[in-house]
Amino acid sequence: NFSTSISLRPIPSSPKSVKSTSSSFNSINTTWSAVPGANGYEFYSSKSSNSSYTLIGSTTARSHNNKGLITNSTNYYKIRAYRMSGKLKVYSGFSTVASSKPIPSIPTSVKAALSSRNSIKVSWIGVNGANKYEVYRATSSKGTYNLLSTTSLKSFNNIALSKNSTYYYRVR
Fold first, then answer.
1. How far apart are CA 18 and CA 37, in angstroms?
2. Average pLDDT value for the chain
3. What are the tens digits of pLDDT across the range 56-86?
4. What is the DSSP string of the chain?
5. What global pTM score does this model have?
6. DSSP assignment of 58-74, as one string?
């Protein structure tokens, strides 16, 4: 005679294609590919690739946005999938490690307008968390951009310009 039947689902595979990118001055977004049959994912973080990792969340999504980080400080992440077997979580191995630094976003809506016959006012929408901005200028779009000013304002007035000359600006 046969024994009673038992069942068991195999261990899920490890998450693949793990990527971390800055999403603001103090947050990093990490994404990964779906693991077939997974019920969810646990998200771990560390300040060093070789030190211990701390569980910072669990999700059924394939991404996690880690907030409240220090700007320009490298953070390391790894993910593991889990499958429920009754009330027990069966875990995959950990993914490869992904890392990133939170950095300020790029200023948007940069505009230049004449403010007088020999000056141009450059303005932009501020970046959340930015303390200062650097304004650069060139005399051709593919030319060398030189630093003009560092300012805490969201505009810069470039004065004493040559008439009938074209100027190109960048802000970071």
1. 18
2. 93
3. 999 999 999 999 999 889 999 999 999 998 8
4. --------PPPPPPP-S-EEEEEETTEEEEE----TT--EEEEEEESSTTS--EEEEEESSSEEEE-SPPTT--EEEEEEEEEEETTEEEE------EEE---PPPPEEEEEEEEETTEEEEEEE--TT---EEEEEESSTTS--EEEEEESSSEEEE-SPPTT---EEEE-
5. 0.71
6. EESSSEEEE-SPPTT--
Q: Please give the C-alpha separations between residue 119 and each of 13, 110, 156, in angstroms, as whole numbers.
A: 61, 16, 10
- Amino acid residing at 36: P
The answer to whether residue 125 scores a pLDDT higher than 70 is yes
Distance CA 83, CA 37 (A): 7
Neighbouring C-beta atoms of residue 83, cutoff 10 Å: 19
Q: Token digits for 14?
A: 């490890």
Note the pLDDT tens digit of each residue in 2-56.
Answer: 888 877 667 899 999 999 999 988 999 999 999 999 999 999 999 998 899 999 9
* Spatial distance between the Cα atoms of 69 and 89, rounded to a whole number of angstroms: 29
Position 85 scores a pLDDT of: 86
Residue 36 has which token pair? 């077939």
DSSP symbol at 136: E
Assess contact for 137 and 167: CB atoms under 8 A: yes
